[in-house]
Write a structure and sequence with these properties.
mainly beta
Length: about 120
């Protein structure tokens, strides 16, 4: 089970840190990904981190977002800086898969809402 948290309201230029905690299983293999879905839009890839800590980001968040993991806490984080209104979405973490496509993952958190005001 994955538990996503940390969403909320931020002003443009502000920061938020999302957390994805795993219970009952670990992130010991495969990728952990963050995806987001804005109202009326399809779910899109945001960032992923591999079991070897290789990271990959969508172009629009490069240099602003950082994905990281704490294996001792079985938690993956998404640090989001310099937030923009277009980052507003429900953010989901996912595991048990690979890559940048949502269908590549088996396990999903419940989503946490990020709202960025201009």
């Amino acid at each position: 089970q994955l538990q996503a948290s940390g969403g909320g309201l931020a002003q443009a230029g502000g920061s938020l840190r999302l957390s994805c905690a795993a219970s009952g299983r670990t992130f010991s293999s495969g990728d952990v990904g963050w995806f987001r879905q804005a109202p009326g839009k399809e779910r899109e890839f945001v960032a992923r981190i591999s079991w070897s800590d290789t990271t990959y980001y969508r172009d629009s968040v490069k240099g602003r977002f950082t994905i990281s993991r704490d294996n001792a806490k079985n938690t993956v984080y998404l640090q989001m800086n310099s937030l923009k209104p277009e980052d507003t979405a429900v953010y989901y973490c996912a595991s048990g898969g690979y890559g940048v496509a949502s269908y590549g993952y088996d396990y999903w958190g419940q989503g946490t809402l990020v709202t960025v005001s201009s």
